[in-house]
Amino acid sequence: MTLSLGDTAPDFEAETTQGKIRFHDWVGDSWAVLFSHPKDFTPVCTTELGYMAKIGPEFERRNVKVVGLSVDPIDKHEKWADDIEETQGSRPGYPIIGDSDFNVSKLYGMLPASTSGDPAQRTPADNQTVRNVFVVGPDKKVKLILVYPMTTGRNFDEVLRVIDSLQLTAKHRVSTPVNWKQGEDVIIAGSVSDDEARQIFPGYRAPKPYLRITPQPK
User: Which domains, ranges and CATH numbers included, belong to the chain?
Assistant: First the structure.
């Protein structure tokens, strides 16, 4: 299947480094980030998992749960975590799914439905499409999908920035402009009439009728 923004994130049961989870129950009333990896002991992914561990408190502060995934069994994840801690200075404190049956990867459209066999016989290149970031809201809808090549490390600071925007725009009738960061001006949503805007966002400025700018709502 192919997932699009606004789709319900597929629910699943999976074994993780912190025990079995049912995804929707695990997300609960929180937001969630699911980020995937083609195989354990891959160099770029090692740096990503380590950095995600370092900035874990930033996700917690935003009520965001983090879960990793790799197309290998749980016992290999634990050994990989040793390497991550040794080389990156931080050990993953979040669960990592063992997707050795390819179930989650196929549910989320990262591997073809026909994929089968022994994951140990597959190379990282065989699984190179398992390099996605999914942000899921408390309503279990997919809010963001990022797909990266194996040669390019992911920017998790950007994921945090997008989550700030998603959470802000879920509460207020605004959008965020290019390169927006927390605390900067925002754009009044097109669904807000000028009369409403004058009431909700007094003093807003409009360099063009369709471009109405206001300070970030509190």
Answer: 13-150 (3.40.30.10), 172-214 (3.30.1020.10)
